[in-house]
Input
Amino acid sequence: MADIPQWLTEPEQYSPPKDRDRFLDRSIVSFVELLSRFRSQSALERDRLWVSPVSKLAAAALYIVLVSLSRQFSFVYVMLAYTAVLLALLPAGDLRRCLTGAALAAALAYLILLPSALAGSRYSITMIPAKTFICVALVNILSRTTRWDRLAGALRRFFFPDLFIFVIDITIKYILLLGEFALQMLYALRLRSVGRNKSKYGSLGGVAGSLFIKSRDMSEELYYAMECRGFTGEYRTSRVRLSWRDGIFWLLNAGIVLVYLLLS
Amino acid sequence: MIEFSGVCYSYGESPALQDVSFSIEAGEAVCLLGPNGSGKSTLLRVLNGLIFPTAGKYSFEGREITPALMKKAAFAKQFHQRVGFVFQDSEAQLFCPTVYDEIAFGPRQMGLGEDEADKRTRDCLSLLGVEALRGRQPYHLSGGEKKKVAVAAVLALNPEVLVLDEPMNSLDPRTAMWLTQFLGQLEAAGKTLIISTHDLSLAAQLSKRAILFGENHAVEADGETAALVKYAALLKKVNLI
Output
């Protein structure tokens, strides 16, 4: 074993030069937010709002179609009130995130439609942002109250091919796994960025390159593991069961369809 | 030098550290023992200023490490130069095109000048016995080689404190023994070593002192490693054996 060199036994007299590296901090924050979103998803021990993912998925699609088709303010108001009730059932953190997303989407729709309002079309500037708010809020509620793997499983009920569900499932898992690896790499880069980095984007490119190789290795390993376990292209997920709660929920949905027909 | 007092940390609603208190003097070598999921890796992240306690206080040389302090680039960079961190997964630590560039990354950033940076890089290559790998791409190395390169890349910064997260994982017995002896050499050279491990057979050789974590994410014992690794009842209680 080689001897420890002299410089390694002496304390370092070092004062770091100034450098701009906020991009690294921002990248780390984005990854932490993304991962905490995925972690909070997989930490959902049971789906919220009591009904099965199959019912929630079908109902969300139904609501979006009805809201999009409706030309009556009164129905849109009914759906706004219904969405508000669903939002009120969420925990504070989820409520804030759902509201923020929906409000931003509605504000964007409003901005896009502003020229048409100035030209005299008041209908679209009132109606479309409200519809956008409802649709985005409903999708957010679905995402916040149901585990994504169970949502993917629910697609089986709608005759989606096994391979499609498998790809969605694996994608969700790999975003988390690769995201964690990318976060580790960014942490490592930050820990060793102790001075002036003349090639910041080069270092970040190195991180992206390693991440690419890692993802390729992981996909190869997954393929071999699946082959070793006799994978034949058929992917079975646990069947989502319907309960009496779903029955009550669909009675409510029948009422919403009735309201839509009456108001139309 | 390092002081934790009543440190807590949680990921959302799941706790990772509960009321952790201890202090480590300069030049000391300490093993953090505990089963998987007991909070060792989280503690190392707090130690390196990557995450911050949700309650309690972590101080380095008398200064409390807070998000506000770590936002000051000059302090953060100096802190990271003084406290080196070797990740559990060496792959995550290697992002340069060649082994040489990987090791030279730190010295070059410190503005040492190409000659001094080259000297340090060569010293580290020789110290870790990886001279032959200098032109290789880090990603295509074996597990043991990656670990050696990761250690060399951190040592090139000449940190006062070296933090290692499960350094013996995925190493063959010979490389593990080599690394144990090498860490002993670093300790003799005056470096402060903080090593997380669940390898009881190597812990006693790595450090005189050990801090044992339980599945409740709290410190269960803090004492002599040789005595702790023989305390079967305690090790059973924390699910380490």
Chain A touches chain B through 42 residues (CB under 8 Å). Residues 162-192 of chain A form the longest helix (31 residues). The mean pLDDT of chain A is 84. The CA atoms of residues 118 and 125 of chain A lie 10 Å apart.
